[in-house]
Amino acid sequence: MLLKKYITVGFSVFFVLLLVISLQIHAQHQDKFVFTQLKYEGKWDPYPETWQDILEFLVTTTSIKPVTKRRVVTIDDDLLFSSPYIVILGSERFPEFSDKQRSIIRKYLANGGLIFVEDSSGLRGSEFDASFRKEITRIFPEKKLEKLPADHPLYKSYYLLRKVGGRRLTNNYLEGIDIAERTALIYSQNDIIGAWAKDRFGNYLWECVPGGQDQRFEAQKLTLNLIMYIICGTYKSDAIHQPYIERKLRRK
After folding, report:
1. pLDDT tens-digit series, residues 133-152
2. Domain spans in the chain, listed from the N-terminal domain onward
3. 204: buried, middle or exposed (CB in 10 Å: 19+, 13-18, 0-12)?
4. 153 and 230 in contact (C-beta within 8 Å)?
5. Is the whole-model pTM more than 0.90?
6. Does domain 34-251 sit in CATH 3.40.50.12140?
7. 20 to 30 A Cα–Cα from 152, which one of 23, 89, 184, 248?
8. pLDDT score recorded for residue 232
9. Quick check: helix, strand or coil at residue 233?
């Protein structure tokens, strides 16, 4: 009987330890940055490999430990609300969502999520741009896209940026929509992600126009700032950081 009792206690301790280890692993995974991209009908994935280079740059440059696998979700996916931010890319017509899906997007952004949308065509007046702007007015009829000011926290979340980059410098600014005093949706027409694209030999696929490699590096820095803005929020807009940031800007 005593032996049986010890065996029972031993198994109980073993299963408790397994539960603790499992919870720790789950918590560690939850704390990691996950590159999440929206899948929709149409050409939603113009750069299927670039996320790997972005995460490698993130690991090399910061102490952040990302999940080493891209997460792909749809608007109706349960994983949507487990993803603090979503990337939407495209160079053709932006998807037209249903009323239910528009409601999901509003709920997602109102509950703290962030969406980064990019016109990968790099062209002014593209089909993607026209259809995106039309759809965004359906999702937020009471709001409109606004240029992000030069002192926006995004531009100083990691690097102190004075200009934006991308594969093509269509605009010298980003746009966004604020919800509850927070920029919850960010829009680019410069094909920032396209500046990362490489062929299978590791060579960049596209020249960055008109600024060349300097413009590419600005795009890479801006990508990192986007990630840091998602993770850290607007803490660098707090007054305590202003003197340091202003000194750094004056020295540039």
Report:
1. 999 999 999 999 999 999 99
2. 34-251
3. middle
4. no
5. no
6. yes
7. 89
8. 81
9. coil
